Each structure stands twice: as structure tokens, then as C-alpha cells.
Amino acid sequence: MRKGVIRPGHVQIRVLDITEALAHYRDLLGLIEVETDSQGRVYLKGWTEVDKFSVVLREADVPGMDFMGYKVLNSDVLGQLEEDLKAYGCEVEEIPAGELNGCGRRIRFAAPTGHQFELYAEKEQTGKWGLSKVNPEAWPRDLKGMKATRFDHCLLYGPNVEATYELFRDVLGFDLAEQVIDPEGNRAAAFLTASMKAHDVAFIECPEPGKFHHASFFLETWEDVLRAADLISMTDTSIDIGPTRHGLTHGKTIYFFDPSGNRNEVFCGGDYHYPDHEPVTWKAEDLGKAIFYHDRVLNERFLTVLT
User: Fold this and answer.
1) Fewer beta carbons within 10 angstroms: which end of the chain, N or C?
2) Residue limits of the VOC domain (predicted)?
3) Residues belonging to the active site
């Protein structure tokens, strides 16, 4: 049952060199640079996003993901979910308003996979980049690179996927849209949504906790994905695989790496999910086709390169 979580709100990514990272996320991906805060963190957003930011880059010695945040309906929902998380046995950290520029009070907790998540109800809304709220044009003329429209989801690797799924289902109200089942009947992967999207976060079973597989950004068309592939080649950016199609979610996709080794995805299309839909099931022995529908084979990098 839905509990008032609206959508993914932001992700904070660790990068080794902030200047190189900006050239990647701003100039190649096409995210809009919003500002830099007193800690040196850089805030960015996709051009269609109404909130002030959706991606935060933090320079660090080790790449990866610090946390992923979700927006909830209002402050009452935030308070209720805070109590529900505590009652479920989660340790909840309260982060004051303003710790992220323009963002209200946040509550942070760890999933059984070892990843940090947070919820918030308020964030400054600056509107779609370069477009009026009245009689807007179709798109801004000054977009760069791949012209990423929005931050869409993360894929995360860690242990205890089943317990993490139960937490997201029972406390946060996420639906299971798709899953991978191993030959023993265990859930090896869970693709979860709080919306109509194919997934707002996904988890794959892995012995090492807290691992970051990729952050994903939405493009409008298959032609945009092919153009992204051209830009990856033009800029000698490290590519993982694609362009291709997923079996899971049926999105059209390409994967590549930022200069710090964090994997990114840009994709278009994909399935939709309503709360009355039964989850789509893939067998683990067919995982190659589930992930890369055309090749039907997983490359080694996709399985082993994590930050």
C-alpha cells in the first residue's frame, strides 16, 4: 500500500576530482549546474526537474554513493514515516533543514543492503530550466551534451535484498514491479517503484554491502540514446555496454563511466506500473536476456565493476 513517498529526489555521489566530474555530469550528461555550497559540494539538476537539484557531487578519496533521497507528500507524512521506521527497528538520523542547500528536514536510515537512504518533504522549487511556468516553450535552447531530462533511479548491490524489499514494501509503501528468482526460489533482485515508473530503485544480491552500480538519467527518445553513444565516443568516455535494450523494464539503454569510475546510465522508454499489477518475474538462469535483451549475455564489467 502506498505510504506517501512521491518520487526519487536526489543522489549524492562521491567523485575523485570535482572539476573532471563537472565536465562529465554537466558538459557530457547535460545536467544543469545550480551552485556550490560551503562544503564544496556541487548541485545539479535535469532540465525538466522542478526541484532545485537532484544530483550532488562530493569530492572524496573513494568513489561511490553517499545516499539516495526520496520526496514524500508533506511534513505529516514525513513524521509518520519517521515513527514507522523507528517502530520497524531502523536507526533514524535527523538532518536539519539547510544541510543541503534549499532542502528541508531530512530523516536518514540504512537499508539491510548497507545503503543510506533519506526522506524529506520540502525542497525549494526553481521550475524547469529556462522555461516559463506560463506558456512554456518546448525545450531550452542552451542545453549541453546528452540533454538529460531527469535523475531517474539507482541500481544498488548488497546483501539481504529480501529484507530490504520487505522494508521498502512494508514501511515505505513501494511496489515490486519486477524480480529475478534464482533456481532455489530466492529473490536475487528486486525492482521497486513508488510511482508509475518501471522502478525508482533496484537491488541485486551481493555479499559486499553498500555498493553502487549506477545512477540513471532519462532521455526522451531512442535517437537521443544513439546520440549519447556518439558523444561517449567523441569524448573518449569509458563505455560499459550498449546501446541496447533491457528485458527487465524494456528500456532502451547505454552504460558508461564517469572519470572516477562511477557507472552512469541514460535510457528511454520502459514499462509502467500500476499498484494492481503483479510483478514481472525473470529466472536467474536467463539473467543475460533479462539485462541485455539483444545479446542475451552479461559482460564481466556489468557484474563486477562497482563503487
Assistant:
1) N
2) 7-122, 150-269
3) 153, 199, 214, 246, 255, 265
